[in-house]
Write a structure and sequence with these properties.
Length: 323
């Protein structure tokens, strides 16, 4: 009896494996929908359309970009999580829906870890630390020294509570033991005039948003938050050179629903890695201040795990809430 049970189990597993392999060989046999959980015209949408075109070429199939905006990306991400795990619905999204968002909003109707299959870490962009031209700090170390001599007297701007600029700054303050006052705005574009005027002492901002002001000589850049120099501004020093171990990135990634068969994940990952060698995509990423990523699904899953743990500590230690 046990022999027959084991034999039947083995046959079932073998048939399942053959079925998955056959599915991957035939995949894709029809157009693939790529959900973008943000409005058209934004950075995620711009990148998704270049990715869709190049990925379609690699797979020999049409990739349809489907903008499902709303609730800071939650609506589109949830739609992807609830889709059939057959490889015909994917989502291109960011850290806001898969690391920071779930930590700040426990009511999000999906699990970022259980309801998705990571496919590839597509690209990442750092923040840049900027100060007004009137600041006495010419380097990151000078800013740290100046802040330490004036505990609680200096302030920093952000794009709002819980956003990447805010959390990046809180992590920096925690790692250096410094004290500054947070002044939240509805976007760093609204904070930038106050920084230029010297009403703010410092701000972490996306490299794409801050770079025009840096190049025009309206603010001073002290450091970037990436682990290596960014292609958008390779001459700006790394913050990790002054604060060892510091890193903060905004990323793009591609996911499928949970349960996506491994052969399909592998096929998509291989094709997406090839798209990251395309000059058109690389140029578009560079214009937006992003550097190409790549790697395996496991690499992506590990990055998600590590980043989630990092932001969880920042949020808990800083007692940061959206309420």
């Amino acid at each position: 009896m046990k022999f027959h049970l084991l034999r039947n189990t083995f046959i079932a597993l073998a048939l399942a494996a053959l079925s998955a392999t056959g599915m991957a060989q035939d995949y894709p046999s029809r157009p693939i929908k790529l959900i973008v959980p943000f409005p058209s015209g934004g950075a995620t949408d711009i990148v998704s359309r270049v990715v869709a075109q190049q990925l379609g070429t690699e797979l020999g199939q049409t990739i349809i970009v489907d903008n499902k905006a709303g609730a800071a990306g939650v609506i589109g991400a949830e739609a992807a999580a609830r889709a059939a795990p057959d490889g015909y619905t994917l989502v291109l999204t960011t850290s806001s829906t898969h690391t920071i968002g779930p930590l700040l909003n426990p009511k999000i109707p999906y699990s970022a870890t259980k309801d998705f299959t990571p496919i590839i870490y597509l690209a990442a962009s750092p923040q840049v630390v900027v100060v007004p031209l009137s600041s006495p700090a010419k380097t990151m170390q000078e800013l740290i020294d100046y802040t330490r001599k004036n505990p609680g007297k200096l302030n920093f701007g952000s794009a709002g509570i819980g956003g990447i600029p805010h959390l990046s700054t809180e992590r920096y303050l925690a790692m250096t033991g410094l004290q500054m006052t947070h002044v939240p705005y509805k976007g760093t574009a609204l904070a930038m005039p106050d920084l230029m005027a010297g009403r703010l002492d410092m701000m972490f901002d996306s490299i794409s948003a801050a770079l025009p002001h840096i190049k025009d000589g309206k603010v001073r850049a002290l450091a970037v938050t990436s682990p290596k120099p960014t292609s958008a501004a390779p001459d700006i020093p790394l913050l990790s050179q002054t604060v060892p171990g510091y890193e903060s990135l905004t990323w793009f990634g591609v996911f499928g629903p949970a349960g996506l068969p491994a052969p399909i994940v592998s096929k998509l990952n291989t094709a997406l890695n090839k798209t990251l060698t395309n000059s058109t995509l690389l140029e578009q990423l560079s214009k937006l201040g992003f550097d190409a990523g790549g790697g395996s699904p496991t690499d992506f899953a590990n990055k998600l795990r590590d980043e989630t743990a990092m932001w969880k500590k920042v949020i808990e230690d800083g007692k940061i809430t959206l309420e």
